[in-house]
Every structure is written in C-alpha cells, then in structure tokens.
Write a structure and sequence with these properties.
The chain has helices spanning about 5-20, 25-35, 40-55, 60-75, 80-90, 100-110, 115-125, 135-145, 150-160, 170-190, 190-195. By secondary structure, the protein is an all-alpha fold.
Length: about 200
C-alpha cells in the first residue's frame, strides 16, 4: 500500500474498515479507498461509494456514493450495479426511478447476483414499476434459489404451495415434488425455516 499499489491500498482499506488485523478505523479506510479509487479499480470505487452512502469515516454524501457506484458499474462490477439500482429504487442521492433500478438490477442479475435476482422478483411479485406477474417473479426467485439462496427457495416454495404459479410443463406430482425439494433445501440451509 505504501508503494501506491491500488489493490494493496484497497485491501488494507477493507482491513481498517472491518478491524481485521488492525484496530478498526473507518477514516483510515476512507483515506486508503480514496488513494486506490483515484487509480481506477472498480472495487475501490465501490468500497469508497459504500462509505459515502452510509457516512462511515466520512460525512454522508449519497450523491457522491452514486457517482462512485457509476464509475464502478461502468467497469462491469455486479455489486456496483446492484447498489446503484438500490439508490435509484429508493431515491437515495438520485431521483427515484424504478425503471432504471430494474435495468441496473438486471445487469447485476446477469452476472449471477442473487440479491439482484430477488429484487427483480419482488418488483414482479408486487407490480411496482412493472406489470405484476407471479410467473416472472417465480422465474427470478428460481434463479436465486438455484444458487442456493434459502430466502428465494422459501419464497418460491410458498408460491408453488399456495398455487400462485404452476409449472406449465409439469404434472401435479412433479410440482409437489419440486415444492418439497425447495422446502428441504431451505430447511437444510437455514434450520429456522424448518421450524415454520
């Protein structure tokens, strides 16, 4: 980090941010993230944006967080697409724009971000910003569930169990087995689901 290597500065910044191997010091983390981000790495820009978003080690500035997330997203960082989508969804540092939020979540989801897939599913399940479609919601929950996301598995199992969606190509017995499999996966991943 002392030699000006961006990745080393970013990694050391994470250590100060989380207090790993050093005393936690959010201001020092911000200083290191600034040094690294100025050299262009997307992960450093994202980390600095996160600090500005929450006001950790620096005065909260959501507009600056959005600017930094945009820089990182322009380099294809899935996390930056996700958090930029979150900012647009909730009007934090930018005007609320659900269509832009969905577009950004789709970019993150295309890179396998399960949280983005769940957020897209929730838009379709509720009809916020899109035409309500339980089938489309199930598709996105299914993508997150396939990655082992217990929350998505649980929601998808409930959707099938309540008859909100049906697999058009499956017989009833196959659908019931799919429901049971999702419930078993969710219970295995999170024992709290098993108690319900």
């Amino acid at each position: 980090a002392a030699q000006g290597l961006a990745q080393a500065q970013n990694n050391l910044g994470r250590m100060f941010e989380n207090g790993r191997g050093v005393a936690q010091d959010k201001a020092e983390a911000v200083r290191l993230f600034r040094l690294a981000a100025a050299q262009g790495p997307a992960d450093a820009q994202y980390n600095l944006g996160f600090m500005f978003e929450d006001g950790q080690g620096v005065a909260q500035d959501r507009a600056e967080a959005v600017r930094l997330y945009r820089l990182a997203a322009a380099q294809g960082l899935a996390q930056a697409h996700f958090y930029l989508g979150y900012m647009f969804e909730n009007g934090r540092g930018v005007a609320q724009d659900r269509a832009e939020a969905i577009r950004l979540y789709r970019l993150a989801a295309a890179q396998g971000d399960a949280d983005a897939q769940i957020n897209i599913a929730e838009f379709y399940a509720s009809g916020r910003g899109v035409t309500r479609s339980p089938e489309e919601a199930a598709k996105w929950y299914g993508q997150a569930a396939a990655q082992g996301n217990a929350n998505a598995q649980n929601i998808l199992a409930r959707m099938y169990g309540m008859g909100m969606v049906w697999r058009k190509t499956s017989a009833l017995s196959q659908q019931l087995e799919a429901i049971a499999a999702l419930v078993r996966e969710a219970a295995a991943a999170h024992p709290a689901f098993a108690a319900r």
